Amino acid sequence: MACLTHIALHVKDVASCVTFYQDYADMQLVRDRHVNGKHIIWLAEPGKAAQFIFVILPDGPGHQQSSMDFSHFGFALASQQQVDAIAYKAEKEGRLLWPVRQEPYPVGYYCGVLDPDGNRVEFSYGQPLG
Hints:
Layout: E1 6-10, H1 14-25, E2 28-35, E3 38-44, E4 53-57, E5 73-76, H2 80-92, E6 96-103, E7 108-114, E8 120-125
Parallel strand pairs: 1-4, 5-8
Antiparallel strand pairs: 2-3, 3-4, 6-7, 7-8
């Protein structure tokens, strides 16, 4: 049986992506490594570093995605108010991609945000995951 343990993001600016995922998704620094002159970061949700991590790798080309490509990362939040707060913050910072909306179960209440590298990130409440 396989177990998904990590996703690696190859980004242009490691520091700005790390800051984004710490600020928006409350992820914590797990490892800060320098390997062959490259700065590699591991991030995880609090208390879940043994289950799943984001690996942030340097020197990426920047993520380009067509408007019809709905690939994204999804983070569950504890309330609609938290989704609203993320959307408000993202709008102020020019990162809001999808305004807050309510969809029928199982989608729930959500908004979309662009990370500094151009990856789409959904923040939701009311989905059966998380």
